[in-house]
Amino acid sequence: MLEPISVSLESLNLITLSPMLIAIGGALLILLIDLFKDNLDKTMYVMLTMLILFIDIGATFSLNINERGFFDLMLVDGISVVSQLIILVTSLLFIPLALTASNNRFHEYSYPEYFALFLFMVAGLQFMVSTDNLILIFVGLETASLSLYTLIAMHNTKGSHEAAIKYFTMGAMAAGFFLMGSVVVYATTGSVELYEVAKILQSQGVDGLSSIIAPLGGAVLMLVAIGFKVSLFPFHMWTPDVYEGSSAPMAGYMSIVPKIAMIVVAMRFFGIYINLNIEAVSYLIIIVSVITMTLSNMMALVQKDVKRMLAYSSISHAGFVMAALALGTTKANSSIFLYYGLFMFTNLGAFAMLWISRHKAKRFHGRYDHPYEKFSGMISAHPIAAVIMAIFMLSLSGIPPFSVFWGKLYLISSVVDFSAATGESKYIVLAIIMVLNSAVAAYYYLKLIVYMFLKPPVNELNLVYTNKSLALATVIGFLVMATILSIFYVQPLMEFVTYLVSSSGY
Q1: Is residue 187 classed exposed, middle or buried when 0-12, 13-18 and 19+ CB atoms within 10 A define those classes?
Q2: How many Cα atoms occupy the beta-carbon half-sphere of 238 within 13 Å?
Q3: pLDDT grade, residue 55 (50/70/90)?
Q4: Number of folded domains that form the chain
Q5: How far apart are CA 341 and CA 321, in angstroms?
Q6: Residue 463: its pLDDT value, please?
Q7: Residue 284: which domain range?
Q8: pLDDT tens digit string along 125-163?
Q9: 332 in a structural domain
Q10: Is residue 66 part of a domain?
Q11: With 70 as the cut, is the pLDDT of residue 446 above it?
């Protein structure tokens, strides 16, 4: 007769689950409130969601580093904490934009289900970055993805429905490749716990060709899955269409939060191969990242719509980050989080500026909502808006001393330092490619500044801006101030991130 297994609450260490439980509990609370009292103003749901996110941030800060919980499925390390903070802060900046939308057109924000789904998505993303169990990563991935598909479709336009279907299709393919990669890893090692996988591969040895084929196959399948989610070549073609069909704030949110969650998964998974000195995986990631950043920059150069340009630029930024991820060093991984922390304010601000200039009808182009001509002469009509948009563009282009420049500098310097430490000059070539791509990217960002400051208005329609709400002005004001002031705190931020990452063992 089998003896019953006794499990104490103390041994489960449920505090490691607290950030996710807060988000899930908040989502259920919103649904319950709507069940008993419907037709409440959306302002209440916005404020409640922001309160839940504030509490979630506090719970994340209170976590102890390098602890496991809930049958060792949950992993609280520095990477988990810093990535959750990026996710939560970006979410906190996104939600107030709902107050700027009128119910007659952007009616998705008037539904309490929208905010409940948003919190479920946040919880799924937090699960992804807070575990090294492939099954739980998949559960978090699907929870976040299914919620995000619905949030996009709730925009309820022809473009948003198309975007949701495309994103769902690509997401289903990514999920399939993720599962196949996980199956190969399990078949090879007998475990889905990445820390156990690392130990088993280390003990088995990966010196010969026969011993490396199966692990390498799992890495390739996982790279395809991550490529779909992070928008790496050649799995990036859905991104411009999905961003174009989504609302501008949602597109800005998608360019940051789901990607940082998947990059953390890539960091944990590919870190195993990098630590085992399986150079084929590192080279494969570098090749994909170089092609991604180069081709997306080429495509961004010829775009006629600012929103699609920003979509291709976000693909380029993802390739830029993946090049550093292939190194596996503490400085490279730390630079990735610093980069996305600075990129978060700038890119969300750029998309918010598109939100401020939205129109129901396509007034300037038969297809596009935000063609470059729409911004012609903005400096004379809306000088403050033009200056703010210029700051965001200068920062995204990586021109000193604006914030994203420092993120790019640390990423490139991590490649140079790695080359110096290993004595392999080919990584200097990678650094040069990254610099050249940054120079190319500056062209299409500066192109918008030329239209705003140097070209005359096309017609009087350029003077129309449909949204001047206090909420939007507050969010954009905070984003531009964060973009500017972060310049003076880059070093402390880097030290904070390095401390967390170095304590994680990745």
Answers
A1: exposed
A2: 23
A3: very high
A4: 1
A5: 12
A6: 46
A7: 13-502
A8: 999 998 888 899 999 998 988 888 888 887 767 777 778
A9: yes
A10: yes
A11: yes
